[in-house]
């Protein structure tokens, strides 16, 4: 199953304040994660600071690929998630962390032999995830939920993974919002080691 190319339109303003189309076409950054073959990040946009500066600045997606959103910012992307494989489950925690280093956040990986899924990870952000095509299972430390096209997840800085047990690729849309843990949650997480 080939997933469609994502078409992006970006607007801006001309010198007279008129609304104009500044970009119309495919995404400039579409990157397959080498350590996790079939996993593809489609970078749509990112913002820094809040409130966000509304300007005609450069495309924020053309820098290094990073998992979390910028400080006080957002990250908007699609991710294609391939079916889980035996090879994925046979990898060491170090090999799995290499996949996270490709997306600029090796520290996000919480992979270990006792984890409920080899791609368990955590970012200090609130992430809105929408299943666009296919099926996926959200796995957390203490449970899991199967999701289908149209399902929405509000992921609040929890340890999680996306298990694709369907045998077909899944495409999800994510908007990540930078966050900071409530002090009680931060203290509980620090106590986990």
Describe the structure using short key phrases.
single chain; 193 residues; Jelly Rolls; three-stranded antiparallel sheet; 3 helices
Main β-sheet, spatial strand arrangement: 3-4-5-11-6-9
Assign the CATH superfamily.
Jelly Rolls
Number of strands: 11
Computed CA radius of gyration, to the nearest angstrom: 18 Å
Q: With helices defined by DSSP (H or I, 4 residues minimum), what is the helix count?
A: 3
The proportion of residues forming helix, as a percent range, comes to: 10-25%
Order of helices and strands: EEEEEHHEEEEEEH
Structural class: mainly beta
CATH topology group: Jelly Rolls
Mean pLDDT: 94
Beta-strand level of the residues, as a percent range?
35-45%
The major β-sheet equals: 6 strands, antiparallel
The 3D shape can be described as globular
Oligomeric category? single chain
Write the layout of secondary structure elements.
Layout: E1 7-13, E2 19-26, E3 29-32, E4 40-47, E5 74-81, H1 86-90, H2 93-102, E6 125-133, E7 135-140, E8 143-148, E9 152-156, E10 160-163, E11 170-178, H3 183-191
What does this structure look like?
The chain has 193 residues and is mainly beta. Helices cover 12% and strands 38% of the residues. The strands form 3 sheets. A 6-stranded antiparallel β-sheet has the order 3-4-5-11-6-9, with no helix packed on it. The protein has a 3-stranded antiparallel β-sheet with strand order 8-7-10, with no helix packed on it. The chain is globular, with a radius of gyration of 18 Å. The N and C termini lie far apart (41 Å). The model has no long low-confidence stretch (mean pLDDT 94).
């Amino acid at each position: 199953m080939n997933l469609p190319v994502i078409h992006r339109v970006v607007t801006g303003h001309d010198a007279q304040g008129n609304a104009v189309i500044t970009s119309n076409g495919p995404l400039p950054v579409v990157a397959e994660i080498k350590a996790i073959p079939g996993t593809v990040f489609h970078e749509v946009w990112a913002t820094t600071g809040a409130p966000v500066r509304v300007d005609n600045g450069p495309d924020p997606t053309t820098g290094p690929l990073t998992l979390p959103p910028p400080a006080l910012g957002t990250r908007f992307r699609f991710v294609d998630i391939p079916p889980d494989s035996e090879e994925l489950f046979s990898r060491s925690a170090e090999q799995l962390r290499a996949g996270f280093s490709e997306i600029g956040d090796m520290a996000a990986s919480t992979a270990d032999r006792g984890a409920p899924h080899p791609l368990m990870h955590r970012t200090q952000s609130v992430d809105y995830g929408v299943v666009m095509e296919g099926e996926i299972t959200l796995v957390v430390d203490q449970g899991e939920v199967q999701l289908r096209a149209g399902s929405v997840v509000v992921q609040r800085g929890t340890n999680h993974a996306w298990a694709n047990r369907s045998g077909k690729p899944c495409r999800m849309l994510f908007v990540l919002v930078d966050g900071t843990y409530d002090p009680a949650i931060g203290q509980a997480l620090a106590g986990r080691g």
